[in-house]
Amino acid sequence: MQASQLVVSKPLFIYLDSSDFSYLSDPAGDQEKNLAIKNKLKKWVGAGQVEIRYSMTHIMEALPTQEKAMELGRHRLSCIQELCGKKVFLDQITLITDELSSQKKQSVVNDDGCWFPISAFSDGIFEDGEKAAAFNRKERRLLAAELRKSRGELDFAKEKAKLIRQFPVTRSGASKILSNPNNSAAFQSVMVESLSDLPNLFSWHEQHWQMQTEFSNILRESGVGIRDIFIDASRELKAYYQEQQVLGEPDKVVDQKIKAFVANLTSSAPRDLAATLSDDRAPHSEPVVIGIETTPMLFVLSKLMMHYVQASVVPRQQSRVPKTSDLGDVMHALYLPYVDFFRADAATAHAINSQHFGFDAVVVTSLDQLVYEVGVRLGE
Fold first, then answer.
1. What is the tens place of the pLDDT at every residue in 209-238?
2. Where are the domains of the chain?
3. Are 83 and 268 in contact (CB under 8 A)?
4. What is the distance of C-alpha 72 from the center of its chain?
């Protein structure tokens, strides 16, 4: 059997950059080259040699926020589904919260297309004990009361329309939820099924992207949360640096103090980020000791937070303004401990490599380099 036909016993995990899905699906791009790259990747996937998995961050970045970008967004999601199918990484919110707790560690992957923190999200929709599907607490109680009184009198069409406006569920899925208003498991099952169907997700998004829906709020607010963490940390660091300048400390001493100050600032960043993204559900009872073996995601997060904060306020150098897009760079990189090949732009790759994480992941800065490196690993 030729080397190119060998099926590795354990597939190589590939994590693509969001820009890769945009590039490979761009109708105005180099179609011949794009098709060749996609066919190569799909051949390896089909042979069981590699797995390409997507994450919540890929979806967040693929969903367009302007009407003129809708068609490109559709192409991006179709490309994600084409290359990954329903193979995903579990969302960062769940995994970070898991690392912050004493819970049994769960798999970082699933093959059901469950990229969204369904359980955390449903906690905000269902109350303790008697749980009922709805759109806010008042409507939830009213709906449950109506269902108990008379199913025949309830306007299911109206309630179904309200449900579909708030969540990207199919009409059949909405019917299942309304038929089981006290069952959070039914809600979660429908959400997983609906969200794993990326064309359905896009169709819903295309109709509701300008609306403030329950579903869109968490996607829109997460970027603001991480930006606030960067900005607050940078402000504190800048104020501290100015204090040291007033004291007239030598540059070498100031640099040492800055390094220690940044380390202290970023030690709380993992918990702050988890709280921001998971609605403060991360446990706070015991301090977390961050380590590469026990808390790999938090380990990456803390070191990258330190890098970006330092980059925003570096003594005697031009400051870098923290950007909302930093969220994507950091959130993508959290999967470094779990992949064999990680695609990133040059700036992100530099940030990652400067931290010397010690993971086995090969960081590549282009699709061409990715295809070459994977081919070499597979013996082609």
1. 776 565 666 555 555 555 676 677 777 777
2. 116-195
3. no
4. 20
